[in-house]
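Hey, resending since the last one bounced:
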Amino acid sequence: MNTLGIIKNNMKLSHPVEVLETLLIRLYLYDRTSNKDLSLKSNLPIPIISAFKKELIKYNFAENKGVFKLNSTGIKYVQNELKYKSIDINKYNLLSSNEKREEFANELSVLLEPIYNNRPQVNVLLDQAHATLETSISRVMLLLNNPRVFKQNILFLGDDDLTSLALMMAFKKLGHYSSKNIFVKDIDQDLLTFIQDIANQNDFFINTEYLDLKRANVYTKDFDIIWTDPPYTLSGLKLFLSRAISLAKNDNSEILLSFGQKKPMENQEVQRLLNNQNLLIKNIYPQFNKYHGGSIISNVSDLYVLSVTPHTYPIISGKSDYSDKIYTGELNPRIKFYQCKSCNNMITIGHGKNILTIEQLIETTCDKCHGNKFQYRGQEKVNSSTNVSQLGTHIIVDMKDCDAEILKSVSAIEKIMLDVAQKFGLNIVTHNFHQFKPWGVSGALILAESHFTIHTWPEYHYAALDLFACNEFKHQDAFITELQMQLNAQEYEYKILQRGF
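The structure tokens again:
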């Protein structure tokens, strides 16, 4: 047993020995302090700090004076045993200044920008959406708040945001060239190769490993900090959290979880999942993470700082495979429609198509004129289950930049709606339209097939329309084009949902 282990036993301390390591490192970094200040910085009661000081004096690690200060023996212990000899203490301590902290972050940004500009393209099948460079640097600055970060084993469980490389650059700037405590486990082999290549170019070592979290594995408890940004599904969250817990070293470990806000009932499920696994929520940073192209989560997500407790356990055992679908593309497959701005060619991308993302479409160009500018026109949910009883097609249309005079007139709107319904063979049972004051129209056609409705906002040149047809409706493109023409709309978007149970 090493010296700190003996001191822990002498103190009859229930905390892990890593708590004493952190105290020792703080003393090393800050040179001298009072019991009260160390208590405030470590969130430990003063009696524990006082008992620790007595033990350090007894083992000739600290000076026997009024202030709490390591002597040469204690300093050598931290440098050699805890591997802190290379850390530039002065530069690290300057990060307590907001001005120097911002300066450090800007220097990191300059180093990382060319790397981030060349990172692998997102794989939407894996729910990837790159975090911004600023977000990765904010994550690193948060990690650097903990002075023990240079010794801790830090795992990035999925790292298409390249936070591992941002942390590597920060370590290098602080003199920690020989670090071997950054780990990345990911299912994306292209990403792992990219991280490894950049690390090699910078004479740095990052431990990378291909890992499919759905497969049973030997998940060894090796990690003090686990950073994960799981798929935006409850099943994905459950799996990634379970694997993170299986990899956490002990009850002093932390899981830093990035996850977007959901509907209130689903947010309750997130909270229940954390509680059921006995994870302690130490902090929540709302909208901490910002993304390129993460529209499903409004391009932002919250950061949860979770503490592993002695009673924390994984709901999904590391010895078990996991068969549930975890990616949004599996659970909620969609296709999207884009129109080429050069030739008006309509292009479908997404689930089951050769092109999955708008980024890929821009790179591929229009298959008719090779233009690379496109207008988003809507999306359609794909029915991927053979067990669903489909009852109808629901088309939701947003017409923008319409003729305000048309939108103000109840008689004009009624005529348009009746005319469109007749053109597309919709059988009207009854209809009703209402003129609001000072303007705006709402109207509904009850159809033998279901309904056709409109609500107008002339002051915004906007109209919202719904068509629900309980029989097969194959004329959606012509239907939307007709509405655009009749309302004199300059832009439109639409969604198509297959309704059923």
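The domain at 93-307 is CATH 3.40.50.150 (Rossmann fold).

Sorry for the duplicate.
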